[in-house]
Amino acid sequence: QKAQIGVTGLAVMGRNLARNFARHGHTVALHNRSYGRTKELVEEFGHEGTFLPAETAEQFVASLERPRRVVIMVKAGPATDAVIDEFAPLLEEGDMLIDAGNAHYADTRRREAALKAKGLHFVGAGVSGGEEGALHGPSIMPGGPKESYEALGPLLEDIAAKVDGEPCCVHVGPDGAGHFVKMVHNGIEYADMQLIAEAYDLLRRVGGHSPAEIAEIFKGWNEGRLGSYLIEITAEVLKQVDAATGKAFVDVVADAAEQKGTGRWTVQAALDLGVPVSGIAESVFARALSGGKDERAAAAEAGLPGPSAGAEHSGDLVADVEQALFASKIVAYAQGFQQIQAASKEYGWDIDPGAMAKIWRAGCIIRAKFLDFIKQAYDKKPDLATLLVDQYFLDAVSGAQDAWRRVVVTAAQQGIPAPGFASALAYYDGLRAERLPAALIQGQRDFFGAHTYQRVDKPGSFHTLWAAEGRPEVDA
Ligand code: NBP
């Protein structure tokens, strides 16, 4: 008997993916650097399906039917390269190595190019949903050569999350497209979490609501257009009481947000592409600020003053914050999708943005009803310049904007940081501005560096001879 698929790297993620394949009736070959994990999996979960455990890489490869499909689920980075170096010489033309870890897309591009030269298919697949997702149905974002999807896709679609019977898995595009999209997914997740945190902070500090009350507000919001996994778990977290102290859980947790790096990668890639993902960037920086222990201690010691008088919020705070949250979320998603489109163009990946929204509807952390509207927007117009001009989002933002502005004003007046809400609003206003002060920046650049500028009334590049006396002369 041969296995349809093999998994190497059997820590929590790999183990659960292997069990998921087995539960769907596939025979799964198993391998791990240290045999202990392989043995443990078979002892504990062997009854769930058919597993072919292997002690060595050679046995593992020999137990797979061709073309061989080897899922790598090890620690991202050098471990992935070590595993590739171990397996590549044992594989034959047309076999596939699928990296399901959280690799940087640039590493994936490098690995694919190297393996292609050896006649092997390398598929960088983004897998979202954590350990629960891996076992019960993740959202899967495979990249790599299109041909490989024919032999691999059906197996991945089997184990993926489903919405109305449709799998949350699609061939994203060639090369590093899958890991790129997974990265942006995580960046959007950072922005979403930051915006939710700002909403909580304002409800607490402006509205005076307790964490338990705010949990109820979020629960209510979860029934509406904000309905999503992140809003749902926020209500759960806020409701939680610390057993040791009897205080709200959120009040006993140190307020320094950590990060593993995918948000930062998203912003770094956006800088290179020149895409303004300000919502994601603010969320990465807000985490960094929260963790800036020395600066925060110095500020506390110096007693950096807040506003002399905090004005009251004019309006229904809870309703206004819901509007601000929804509008800012739309901006963050619009920016993330723009980044995907920019990379797709830059690398020739031909990514269908609507399909990304579709496979994020279940299995992953940002799963939400909202994604249906994004899918519909791109289905209607695949080359949509920005989500903000799609009718649904345009209506939502124009309906929200007065409340959104009131919330940003209140935050500024009361000295409560809301970088996500404020920068999303600034982005929105920048996008809709008829004239931007960028014209002045062009003038400054031309003045000090002779960088030239373009004119609104005729084509060409112009330079003004600034130093000349009297009337500035113009070079065409
Ligand atoms: P870890 O990231 O903790 O990695 C442990 C696995 O890597 C073990 O199987 C270990 O083998 C193996 N490994 C290491 Br470490 N160095 C190795 C080497 N040089 N050669 C061969 N194998 C090596 O496992 P995880 O938490 O299950 O995560 C796996 C991947 O999934 C990572 O890329 C991670 O970023 C990603 N991940 C994704 C999500 C998600 O939501 N998508 C969640 C968590 C993790 P050993 O047993 O012999 O030490």
General description of the model:
- The chain has 476 residues and is of the alpha/beta class.
- The protein is built from 20 helices and 11 strands.
- A hairpin with a 2-residue loop joins strand 8 and strand 9.
- Helix 8 crosses helix 12 (262-273) and helix 15 crosses helix 19.
- The termini are far apart.
- The model has no long low-confidence stretch (mean pLDDT 96).
- Bound molecules: nicotinamide 8-bromo-adenine dinucleotide phosphate (NBP).
- This is 6-phosphogluconate dehydrogenase, decarboxylating.
- Its EC number is 1.1.1.44.
- Residues 178-467 form the 6-phosphogluconate dehydrogenase C-terminal domain.
Question: Layout of helices and strands, plus pairs?
Answer:
Blueprint: E1 5-8, H1 12-23, E2 28-31, H2 35-45, E3 51-53, H3 57-62, E4 69-72, H4 78-87, E5 96-99, H5 105-116, E6 121-128, H6 130-136, E7 139-142, H7 146-159, E8 162-163, E9 166-167, H8 177-205, H9 211-222, H10 229-239, H11 249-252, H12 262-273, H13 278-290, H14 293-302, H15 317-347, H16 353-359, H17 371-380, H18 391-414, H19 419-432, H20 438-449, E10 463-465, E11 473-475
Parallel strand pairs: 1-2, 1-4, 2-3, 4-5, 5-6
Antiparallel strand pairs: 6-7, 8-9, 10-11
Nicotinamide 8-bromo-adenine dinucleotide phosphate binds next to helix 1, helix 4 and strand 6.
Organism: Actinoplanes philippinensis
Subunit structure: Homodimer.
InterPro entries: 6-PGluconate_DH-like_C_sf (IPR008927), 6PGD_dom2 (IPR013328), 6PGDH_C (IPR006114), 6PGDH_Gnd/GntZ (IPR006113), 6PGDH_NADP-bd (IPR006115), 6PGdom_BS (IPR006184), NAD(P)-bd_dom_sf (IPR036291), Pgluconate_DH (IPR006183)
